[in-house]
Description:
The structure holds two protein chains of two kinds.
Chain A: H1 3-22, H2 30-58, H3 62-65, H4 72-76, H5 86-92, H6 101-105, H7 113-130, H8 147-154, H9 158-161, H10 172-178
Chain B: H1 2-30, H2 34-71
Amino acid sequence: MSVPLLAIFAIVGGLLAVVVGLRPQLTLSRGGKILAFAALFIVPVLSTWGSFEGHMEHAQSTSFCLSCHVMTDYGRSLQVDDPSYLAARHFQNNRVPSDRACYTCHTDYAMFGGLKAKIRGLNHLRIQYLGKVPKPEDIKLYTPYNNRECLHCHLGARRFEESSAHQKRPELLPDVKSGKLSCLSSGCHDIVHDVETIKDVPLWKGAR
Amino acid sequence: MKATRGIETRLRRASVLIAAGLLAQVLTFLIKHPLAFVAFLAVGCPLVAGGTVLFLLGLVSSVPEKSDAAGA
Lengths: 208, 72
């Protein structure tokens, strides 16, 4: 549901609750009881659920992730004019949706992955406002990047399966698929955001 | 009579909590900031939850009093 619709729904629910609060004697009639049940239970519960979904949806947007100052350089790394930067290559070639660029790669494609990502996000907020914010180049992943997140999209794709680089050794692809060899390991796709070098790198002119 | 007043008081309190909670939720939509989500969770949701629980408690507690009145 869109944000304006959710807002209208919540406002109507609030007004109904006010009506019931100002005229509680309405509930003496059958119609009034139904109105009170709708105003004080059904509408608030549905509105809260819808609002929660709306907030969760917004929290997956690229603009949301980049709204913290410490993420500015990570945002710039999506616009770098150099295809060796993995994040830039994905962003500029629409391999990830531009409005969900961060979330697409930084969520776990497993049960409760989205929920875990949100809990980590709340922890980031705590650090932003109550803790010591690290320098962008000091920010590290909580755990090593899981190949599962790459394979979620690339597995089975011809360009991935038949790429000459992936066919160099017969055990390379099986090792990648089983997680023995990281996609981001040295010599492969090891330049991802590299924010420490971002200031010296030109940006793509056509970037959104 | 007392029971009716009690229910009315609960309805009023529940409606105040729910209206305030829904208003808080609408405000969090207008502000595009990560803290808006925290405000939604910390203010909007508890107010609405408190209001609906109060309303449901009012419904449950009103049932035996009504049947007493009918019996009398």
